[in-house]
Design brief:
single chain, 5-stranded antiparallel β-sheet, disordered C terminus, alpha+beta, 29% helix
């Protein structure tokens, strides 16, 4: 059984040191005395070929830790999974999750001016591109296509009132899907545009009403006068001379 006293004395010219607890786990010498590369040789259950998987460098990865990693790898093999292939699968999964988080962070940090045109079919998407302009950021859905734009002033767009089966989401907290999202029914959302960055979205084109008026101190309703203010706005001719409630 391999012990620290032996592992610490490994030299570049030495032969690999077997762990001794199970066949396949070895400490291979490196160019530096006292440092070795952990390797586990195994037969892949998917290809029936010999492969070597690395567990890091000794002494950073201790003998105890290398044995633990070996046990995990053997468990995968017993389940007909190749440890190297499983490692690559987990790396790819982490990469996709990072992309999703990056999309969300970018939308909230940069794009308070983000607008999402949720088209229910490719035909409607093509029609909206003609109407609002070309965008390089597009996400396909099981039922259609999402088109992403930026805006300078918050637009008021109600395409359903025009008879289109299209939803419009405006603002960083209004978008509902990012690339690589997965629906409960298993459907996926896939990025199909030419540009994966949200930093250079085109400004949406077209003529529509905008919410450009901002709330100021003068536009706030004084405390205790909400009902009177709302009544004046709804029928000003009849209430302009109504006395205010004394406080």
């Amino acid at each position: 059984m391999l012990r620290d006293v032996t592992a610490k004395s490994i030299k570049p010219e030495d032969k690999p040191l077997p762990d001794g607890t199970v066949a396949g786990l070895r400490l291979l010498p490196t160019k530096v005395k006292g440092r070795g590369q952990w390797k586990l040789r195994y037969v892949s259950p998917t290809t029936s070929k010999r492969r070597d998987i690395g567990f890091g460098v000794y002494p950073e990865v201790s003998i105890h830790e290398a044995r633990r990693l070996k046990t995990e790898a053997r468990q995968l093999i017993a389940s007909n999974l190749d440890p190297i292939e499983e490692r690559e699968r987990l790396k790819e999964k982490a990469k996709l999750e990072k992309n999703i988080l990056s999309f969300e962070a970018a939308a909230h940090r940069v794009h308070n001016d983000l607008i999402d045109i949720d088209d229910k079919s490719d035909e409607l998407a093509q029609l909206m591109v003609k109407r609002f302009g070309v965008t390089p950021f597009k996400v396909s859905t099981p039922k259609g296509l999402h088109l992403y734009y930026a805006y300078h002033e918050k637009p008021l767009i109600n395409l359903r009132s025009e008879g289109y089966e299209i939803d419009v989401k405006v603002g960083a907290t209004s978008y509902v899907v990012g690339p690589y999202s997965i629906r409960p029914d298993g459907g996926t959302y896939d990025f199909i545009g030419q540009n994966f960055s949200l930093n250079h979205l085109p400004v949406i084109q077209g003529n529509f009403t905008t919410l450009s008026k901002k709330i100021t101190a003068k536009s706030l309703v004084p405390e205790g006068e909400r009902n009177l203010t709302l009544t004046k706005k709804s029928c000003p001719a009849s209430v302009n001379d109504m006395p205010r409630r004394s406080r």
